[in-house]
Amino acid sequence: MGTRVLGLGCGNPGGSAEILLIEALRAAEADGADVELVRLDDLGLDPGPDDDAGWFWERLIDCDAWIISAPIISRTVPGRLKVLGDRLLGPNADAAIIEGLLAARLRGEDPAVPFRVDERVLRPRVAGFIACGGSLTTQWKTLALPVMHTLTFSMSIAVVDQMVVEGAGTPRSVVLDPEAVARAATLGGNVASQLGRGLDDAEYLGPPGACPLCRLDVVVLRGAEVECATCGARGRLEGAGVAWTDLSPSVISLEERAAHYREIVETAGAHAARAALVEERAAAYAGYPTVRPGAAKVTTSSRSPRL
Ligand SMILES: Cc1cc2nc3c(=O)[nH]c(=O)nc-3n(C[C@H](O)[C@H](O)[C@H](O)COP(=O)(O)O)c2cc1C
């Protein structure tokens, strides 16, 4: 089997986001990749018998490239895409955390953190993002690509292209925009050209952006100090632009995620030493009444986290 491109369509079945994704997948296929399209709509994401999160994880872990195509909903990605990320990604899929836990195992240590260790995460992968909106103005799209990055950074997947489409506000109407359709094909080709590469050696082929790491332009300002809102790279306002002074705090950098891993282990250790105090103080909040659909006001016991 050749290199695999996994396409995740997060919009209406047959809708504009899916049309752009198919265009990208066809281009990748024409360049020799094996491709497959999964509809987010087809996945059960609630823990229980119909839960498909594990099924999707195996497809993701088996791919060399992930293309995500999503409609823009209330300025960002659809909530179900975030649910998928909450179920599968973050610390449980973080390459730096997995490397840290593997190294600890080799030293015979057992850090008291509850994360999965799936070494298959460490294979190099690239990604491409397509965000498809109905609006013609930028302010209705601002948070779509930044949130898409939250799906790739933990696994150290290198984003090699990203695009935003406007004006596709009625069903399937993106077909009226040949430039958008052609751009999606270019994105598919760009992704295919980087198969087998990862964070270390993938070439970014998308549009330029202010931040040298995520290539987006959404920032936090503290006076003249700048922090990239998508990835955390640091800089200073200088003239009309940003002088990026420190890329190491970016969550895209393995250095930052290794530091974050150490912080998590230290925090968990400090809390473990105070476990009795946590129990004692948290007891004051147990049993607070909640309301639920179809039930009278009930007193519930506290539950452990679901994720
Ligand atoms: C609830 C809802 C919220 C939306 N919010 C935005 C938005 O904030 N910005 C935007 O550009 N388009 C917005 N749209 C339009 C969709 O992004 C657009 O119609 C998209 O092409 C739908 O893609 P699909 O048919 O592939 O699902 C919204 C649509 C819906 C239904």
Please, could you describe this protein's structure?
With 307 residues, the protein is α/β, with parallel strands linked by helices. The mean pLDDT is 94. Helix 4 (95-106) packs across helix 7. The chain contains eight helices and eleven strands. It has a domain at 4-207: 3-Layer(aba) Sandwich (Rossmann fold). Strands 2-1-3-4-5 form a five-stranded parallel β-sheet. Strands 6-7-8-9 form a four-stranded antiparallel β-sheet, with no helix packed on it. Strand 4 (126-132), helix 5 (144-149) and strand 5 form a beta-alpha-beta unit. The structure holds flavin mononucleotide.
Anisotropy-based shape: globular
CATH topology of the domain at 4-207: Rossmann fold
Structural class: alpha/beta
Name of the CATH superfamily of the domain at 4-207: Flavodoxin domain
Strand order of the largest sheet: 2-1-3-4-5
| Name of the CATH class of the domain at 4-207 | Alpha Beta
Main β-sheet: number of strands, strand sense, barrel status?
Answer: 5 strands, parallel
CATH architecture annotation of the domain at 4-207: 3-Layer(aba) Sandwich
Task: Supply database-style keywords.
single chain, 307 residues, alpha/beta, Rossmann fold, five-stranded parallel sheet, four-stranded antiparallel sheet, 8 helices, 31% helix, globular, binds flavin mononucleotide
Write a short abstract of this structure:
The chain is of the alpha/beta class.
Topology of this protein?
Blueprint: E1 4-9, H1 16-30, E2 34-39, H2 53-61, E3 65-71, H3 79-88, H4 95-106, E4 126-132, H5 144-149, E5 158-165, H6 178-193, E6 219-222, E7 225-228, E8 234-238, E9 241-246, H7 254-273, H8 275-282, E10 289-290, E11 298-299
Helix pairs in contact: 1-6, 4-7
The structure holds flavin mononucleotide (FMN).
Flavin mononucleotide binds next to α1.
